[in-house]
UniProtKB/TrEMBL annotation:
<dbReference type="Pfam" id="PF19112">
    <property type="entry name" value="VanA_C"/>
</dbReference>
<keyword id="KW-0411">Iron-sulfur</keyword>
<protein>
    <submittedName>
        <fullName>Aromatic ring-hydroxylating dioxygenase subunit alpha</fullName>
        <ecNumber>1.14.13.-</ecNumber>
    </submittedName>
</protein>
<dbReference type="GO" id="GO:0004497">
    <property type="term" value="F:monooxygenase activity"/>
</dbReference>
<keyword id="KW-0560">Oxidoreductase</keyword>
<keyword id="KW-0479">Metal-binding</keyword>
<dbReference type="GO" id="GO:0051537">
    <property type="term" value="F:2 iron, 2 sulfur cluster binding"/>
</dbReference>
<dbReference type="InterPro" id="IPR017941">
    <property type="entry name" value="Rieske_2Fe-2S"/>
</dbReference>
<dbReference type="GO" id="GO:0016705">
    <property type="term" value="F:oxidoreductase activity, acting on paired donors, with incorporation or reduction of molecular oxygen"/>
</dbReference>
<keyword id="KW-0408">Iron</keyword>
<feature type="domain" description="Rieske">
    <location>
        <begin position="31"/>
        <end position="135"/>
    </location>
</feature>
<keyword id="KW-0001">2Fe-2S</keyword>
<keyword id="KW-0223">Dioxygenase</keyword>
<dbReference type="Pfam" id="PF00355">
    <property type="entry name" value="Rieske"/>
</dbReference>
<dbReference type="GO" id="GO:0051213">
    <property type="term" value="F:dioxygenase activity"/>
</dbReference>
<dbReference type="InterPro" id="IPR044043">
    <property type="entry name" value="VanA_C_cat"/>
</dbReference>
<dbReference type="GO" id="GO:0046872">
    <property type="term" value="F:metal ion binding"/>
</dbReference>
Length: 354
């Protein structure tokens, strides 16, 4: 909550960006969303990457998700080239079998009764929640001390949920700054997006940045979302809560956005977003319309905005790579706060890992 945070100035002023933020890694001692649960089919292996670490996901015989290092300790072959057999993941090269703890439990050409070799893959804490698969890539002993964000709207019958995924050829810091940066409404003006943003509150803790902006809307979006009956100008407050490593954004009395960021490498990121909209429609009428409204709102409202954002984010990354020493100027203190937190979290992990 903002009142519990260190309150920061909301004044806009020029500050030089420290480019180190474009190079740092993650603090792995948090839960990260890595895949949609429906993409992990029974009997299949789903490879994912989180900050240069390849992980193999699979479901065991009880339909529980397991996550192990995607490298066989025998020959180094990727485990996703193999198969799932009962509770085991089986390497496609020699048929070595491993359980969800990464332990070798069988070799097809091994003598019966003979002790198996000490071959171990790294296992990862994993859970399935809110239609997503979450990985804790850090110290497994710390997994119970953290949790994915709470999403109370997930089971709220009055909310229309719209899942949305995206891929970016950019460092996760650039993607995170885009989410915090309400001032880029200029980019979306042809879509009748928001305008005249004003940063009104800003606060920080060791793990979060919370900003509040006052923004204005007009046009067909105000009618679609129930802001205004005639499409006239409406002013709302939007709160953007960056709870490392995820976002919780809320538009006053209208919507909530839970955006989970997956850092893949220094130039690749993904996001998994759950958007909840409170439409001016009674629940009895909303229920039969859900399946029709989800793709309609996705294509009319989200994808056009997202495609414009991706173009700018990837351009920013491309030009950074051309000249990493070039200095850039930022005026939004919320962006500077985001950068500071990302670097601080990485440095904190590095200091405890050594």
């Amino acid at each position: 909550m903002l009142e519990l945070a260190n309150t920061l100035s909301t004044s806009l002023q020029g500050q030089t960006i420290q480019n180190r933020v474009r190079e740092v890694g993650i603090n792995p001692n948090y839960w990260y969303a890595v895949a949609w649960a429906h993409d992990l089919k029974v009997g299949k292996i789903l490879p994912i990457r989180i900050w240069n670490q390849s992980i193999a996901l699979y479901r065991d015989s009880q339909n529980q998700v397991q996550a192990v290092e995607n490298v066989c300790p025998h020959k180094g072959v990727a485990m996703d080239k193999g198969k799932v057999q009962g509770d085991a993941i089986v390497c496609g090269y020699h048929g070595w079998e491993f359980n969800g703890q990464g332990e070798c439990v069988g070799i097809p050409y091994w003598n019966e009764g003979q002790k198996l070799p000490c071959a171990q893959m790294k296992p990862f804490a994993v859970q399935e929640k809110y239609g997503l698969i979450w990985i804790f890539p850090g110290d497994r002993a710390l997994a119970a001390t953290q949790s994915p964000p709470q999403i109370p709207e997930y089971d709220d019958p009055n909310c229309l949920m719209i899942p949305l995924g995206a891929a970016f050829k950019a460092h996760f810091s650039i993607c995170n700054e885009n989410t915090m940066d309400v001032f880029h409404g200029y980019l979306h003006q042809n879509l009748q997006g928001w305008f005249d943003p004003v940063l009104i509150k800003l606060g920080e803790t060791e793990e979060s940045i919370l900003a509040e902006y006052r923004v204005s809307y007009r046009g067909f979006l105000t009618k679609l979302l129930g802001f205004s009956k005639d499409g006239g100008i409406t002013t709302k407050t939007i709160s953007i809560d960056y709870q490392y490593p995820n976002y919780i954004n809320k538009l006053e009395n209208v919507s909530s956005l839970y955006l989970m960021r997956l850092p893949i490498s220094r130039t690749e990121s993904r996001s998994f977003a759950l958007f909840f909209l409170r439409l001016p429609i009674p629940t009895w009428l909303l229920n039969p319309l859900r399946r029709a409204l989800q793709p309609l709102i996705l294509h009319l409202l989200f994808l056009p905005f997202l495609h414009q954002d991706i173009e700018m984010i990837e351009s920013e990354q491309e030009n950074y790579l051309k000249d990493p020493q070039r200095r850039y100027v930022e005026v939004n203190p919320a962006i500077i706060a985001i950068q500071r937190l990302i670097v601080k979290q990485y440095d904190r992990y590095r200091s405890t890992d050594q």
